[in-house]
């Protein structure tokens, strides 16, 4: 697992970014996108996954510093749960008590094309350098730029209280308005242990 996440996944992201930067720096423009997840902030799945995602987020932030003078942006993109082939296969299996909770979380998963739309809109953004070095959530980019998922769906952000409550208390989440968000500073502050 460590080798897949870090020796292959993380290292491949770095090597791809290095090659991309070799083209973007002389052109004085470009966008590098690392795909990550909330697993970079809090435990999710396993140690290797969390280390890889935290490193992807940090790599985007550090590359943004080094590439800023060359007008090359670098961001870390957090999709919501994505309806990959693996997730689709999982949801088609008989559900036991543990996996039925996971199925409830995954039922609103984003189509894989939603992340692609986010990247396309970021690449077309004339002010992309203002976002460089940041973690960006696909659902929030959809609202900002005005694009939707397949079927006209507007996925909820990990920062929306409605979504967070729906994980544990789905029967009451309908009462929470969609405009209530967990502040970014609180997410960042709650992730560090001193």
Automatic annotation (TrEMBL):
Source superkingdom: Eukaryota
Pfam families per UniProt: adh_short
PANTHER family, per the entry: DEHYDROGENASE/REDUCTASE SDR FAMILY MEMBER 1, DEHYDROGENASE_REDUCTASE SDR FAMILY MEMBER 1
This protein's name: Dehydrogenase/reductase SDR family member 1
Organism placement in taxonomy: Eukaryota, Metazoa, Cnidaria, Anthozoa, Hexacorallia
């Amino acid at each position: 697992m460590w080798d897949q996440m870090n020796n292959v996944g993380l290292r491949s992201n770095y090597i791809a970014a290095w090659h991309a930067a070799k083209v973007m720096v002389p052109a004085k423009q470009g966008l590098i996108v690392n795909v990550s997840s909330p697993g970079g902030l809090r435990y999710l799945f396993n140690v290797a996954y969390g280390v890889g995602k935290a490193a992807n987020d940090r790599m985007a932030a550090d590359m943004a510093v080094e590439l800023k003078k060359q007008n090359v942006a670098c961001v870390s993109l957090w999709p919501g749960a994505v309806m990959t082939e693996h997730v689709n296969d999982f949801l088609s299996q008989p559900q036991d008590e543990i996996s039925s909770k996971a199925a409830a979380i995954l039922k609103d998963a984003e189509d894989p094309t939603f992340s692609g739309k986010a990247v396309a809109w970021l690449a077309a953004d004339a002010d992309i350098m203002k976002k460089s070095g940041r973690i960006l959530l696909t659902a929030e980019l959809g609202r900002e730029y005005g694009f939707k998922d397949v079927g006209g769906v507007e996925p909820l952000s990990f920062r929306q209280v409605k979504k967070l409550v729906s994980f544990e208390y789905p029967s009451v989440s309908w009462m929470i308005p969609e405009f209530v968000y967990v502040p970014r500073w609180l997410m960042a502050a709650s992730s560090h242990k001193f």
